[in-house]
């Protein structure tokens, strides 16, 4: 908990060389999900939050959507780690 919020976070990688490739996905993913890609303390990580006083339904949705986001981002990290070419659509949204 932090500042009246429940914060879920997971480290995705410590490999800083992946930051540009992962960042290219971030703007488009922000339109699909509430989880946010971030970098700090030597890790690229994903985080999402909700109010501490959220009801059970909201907390369940938070957890479910966060785990879905984690799966998607971990798959991108694995693809990059294996050196596989990852196709990026022509319609990538850049901030």
Description:
With 95 residues, this protein is an alpha+beta fold. 42% of the residues lie in helices and 24% in strands. The chain has two helices and three strands, in the order βαββα. It has helices at 19-32, 56-81; strands spanning 5-13, 36-40, 43-51. The chain has a three-stranded antiparallel β-sheet. Strand 2 and strand 3 form a beta hairpin. The longest helix has 26 residues, at 56-81. The radius of gyration is 14 Å and the shape is globular. The mean pLDDT is 85.
pLDDT average, as an integer?
85
The percent range for helix content is 40-55%
Order of helices and strands: EHEEH
What portion of the residues fall into strands of 2 or more residues? 15-25%
Q: Unreliable stretches, pLDDT < 50, 5 or more residues?
A: none
Number of strands: 3
Structural class: alpha+beta
Radius of gyration: 14 Å
The total of helices stands at 2
Strand order in space, largest sheet? 1-3-2
Q: Per the principal axes of the C-alpha atoms, what is the gross shape?
A: globular
Q: Tell me the major beta sheet.
A: 3 strands, antiparallel
Q: What's the N-to-C terminus distance? A: 29 Å
Give a concise summary:
42% of the residues lie in helices and 24% in strands. With 95 residues, it is an alpha+beta fold.
Key attributes of the depicted protein:
2 helices; alpha+beta; 95 residues; globular
What is the strand and helix layout of this fold?
Elements: E1 5-13, H1 19-32, E2 36-40, E3 43-51, H2 56-81
